[in-house]
């Protein structure tokens, strides 16, 4: 690589690293979620000419997004699904049916692109975990949001894979082939989980051999990164969405190596210390502020998307969980906490733009919706939690 080009690449990374360091301070001062702050910094950085997007930063940002999906997968311990119980899973099924049927009705009524059917119900654990840190796990609305978020995140991953297939191949044999490969891959993964469970049961020392409890050579990080990269390569080789590989790698770690509590902290430090902020700053660079300022309707469209998402969740929550809560306030709080899928909403919008399923303006509207949710819904939750006295349903 030419010395001048190398200098400019390192200069871009140096500037981005400064923004990454600044973001937590701005988040604390403004009380705005750090994800939104990072997106703003990326947008303003390009708007004021502080730095320019580059291909190499985009590559590292892609790695950052995949690492984020890996960390999200680590929140999903498959053994926890048994604890949810059949009764709850049935209610969850009703909830998601109402959610997706409602999304279909919205898309048909307003003649929106089909990708909205997957985008409006999309879910992510990121902001839910942030709310739990602020309000604790004892709140019933957050307990439900966490349980639904786990199932919803799996559905969101599946939706991304399906979107990729249908927009890449259309309703052709190639799409059905892709879905067949996906189903086959899932069955293989299920069999893999069953075999590994048996192996670890028969040879309990093998688990500790792979990931020692007391490890001075960072074997836990080495194994985690191997799973992360190898599964991404596998799903890419099968022409599936690479998010699936990253997410599954995280699930494997969470399911079989849950005793390594410090591992999650290590990987979170690696991810949220650099790679994940880099992804969100890079996303911010794709939001052209001059276009938004010239066309204020984009902000209105973003707000409409955000309110549509929360309206669907309120309806679905009333339909499936009205007997789960004793107060109307908790249903509203649950709907708000479930309506901030910042990472997956951005990911769905980015995939839609890449596949041509969304136009540039619709993409901007989704980014603005994610920012609006991250700022306004957090404030509304705080106000409702503080000042709304519960009333019995």
CATH topology: Na+/H+ antiporter like fold
Corresponding CATH architecture = Up-down Bundle
Alpha carbon gap, first and last residue = 67 Å
Unreliable runs: none
Number of domains: 1
How would you describe the overall organization of this protein?
This protein has 393 residues and is mostly helical. It has one domain: Na+/H+ antiporter like fold. 80% of the residues lie in helices and 0% in strands. The protein has 18 helices and no strands. Helix 17 packs antiparallel against helix 18. The longest helix has 30 residues. It is globular, with a radius of gyration of 21 Å. The N and C termini lie far apart (67 Å). The model has no long low-confidence stretch (mean pLDDT 82).
Layout: helices, strands, pairs:
Elements: H1 3-30, H2 34-47, H3 55-73, H4 80-84, H5 86-110, H6 116-119, H7 126-135, H8 140-169, H9 173-202, H10 204-210, H11 219-237, H12 242-256, H13 261-285, H14 289-294, H15 297-321, H16 328-337, H17 342-355, H18 360-387
Helix pairs in contact: 1-2, 1-13, 2-13, 3-12, 3-13, 5-15, 7-8, 8-9, 8-16, 8-17, 9-10, 11-12, 15-16, 15-18, 16-18, 17-18
